Amino acid sequence: MSHKRFEVQLTNVGRASAFLGKLQAEQVKIQHVYVAGTSVYFETDRKGIEKIRRFRRKYRVQVKISRVGSDSVEYRLFSSWLFIIGCIIPLSASLFLWDIKVESDVPEVAERIEMKLKKADIKVPALLSRLPEEDEIRRLLMQDESSLSWIRFTQTGTSFIVSPMLAPLSAETKEEVKKTPSHLVAKTGGVITHFALTRGERASIIHQTVKKGDMLATGILEQGEKTTVVGADGEVFADYWLEYHFELPRTVTYFIQGEEEVHIDWRTPWLKNAAGTMRLRNPILFNKTRVDPMHTVRLEKGMEETVILPLLKYDLLSKKANKRIIKEENVLHVSFTNDKVKGTILFLINENIAEKRPITQGD
Fold it and tell me: Based on CB atoms within 10 Å of each CB, which residue in 31, 130, 202, 250 is the most buried?
C-alpha cells in the first residue's frame, strides 16, 4: 500500500463542482470521485494536495485531507513512535553486556575472579564489541592462580559466563624424577618433513628417508674437543604409508549433528532484589537447543568412499593424541558378507615418529 496517495473530503457541495473544475484545469490528478451525503470524496497525490490548499479559500470549500490507508492497523502500527522506540530499545540493548556470572563451587575462587574482572574494567553494562579477546581475559584471570587449570567462557546473547576449572589435586607429593639424557630415534620408517626440537642437535635432514631405529637427533653436543651430554627432546615429523586392516558390522548406527535453534524471549530490563533496590538486567533471553538425530545405515557396495572411508579416518585419528595428519588414502580391498565388512586401506600418514633412547656409555 502506497502512503503517497491522499483522500480529500469536500463538505461544501454547492461549490465543489467549480472547485473540481479548477483542479482539472491545473492538471491535478483526481481519482475515485464519489458523493456521500453532503460531501464529495476523491483521491489525489502530493502535488494535488499543494494546489488544493492554495485554492480552497478562494472557492470557500472545507477540505479534510487524510492518507489512503491511514486508518488501517498496519499503518497506525508502523507509523507509531512507540513502535519505533519499542524496536530500537531491544536492538540497542542487545549490543551491550548486561550480565556476568562466575560459576565455581569454591566461593573464594569466584570472589577472586570477580575482583580481577572489575580491576580489568570488565563489568556491566558494557559494549559487547569492546570485550577483550578470550585469550587475553584468560591470561589475566589465571595469573597467580595456581589452583586453576583452565577457564572456559560462554557468551549467550548478552550474558557472559566465566567457568574456572580447578587443577586436580594430587593425593601425594611426587618427587621430581630426574630424566635420563636420551637420543631421539625413529620408531618407524618414513621420510622426514620437519623438526620441532627443544633440545639436542639434528642427526638427520629434511626429506631424508629413515628406517626404524635410525638416529633422528642426538643428545650429545661436541664443541671442538669438548663433549657435553644435554639430551635430545622434541618432535620429528615424517611421512609414511600405513596399511590399515578393518572389520565393521554390516549395520552401523551413528549420530548426525542437528541444526541449532535459537528461541528469543523478552522480559523487563529492571529487577527488584530482596533488599528493594533496582538493578538493570538483560531484557533479551536467548535459549539455544539442538537435537542430534541418530541414523542407522546398512553398508552396501558403492559406499567405500562416501561412508566407510570417513568412518575409518575418524577412528584412526581419534586413537592418537599427537598431531597426526592423513595426507592420502587408497582403497586396496573391501569385501561384504551378510553381517560383516572387511577390507584394507593404505593411508599416507604424517606424524611425530621420534621416541627416546637413553644415552649409554658406548655412545
Answer: 202
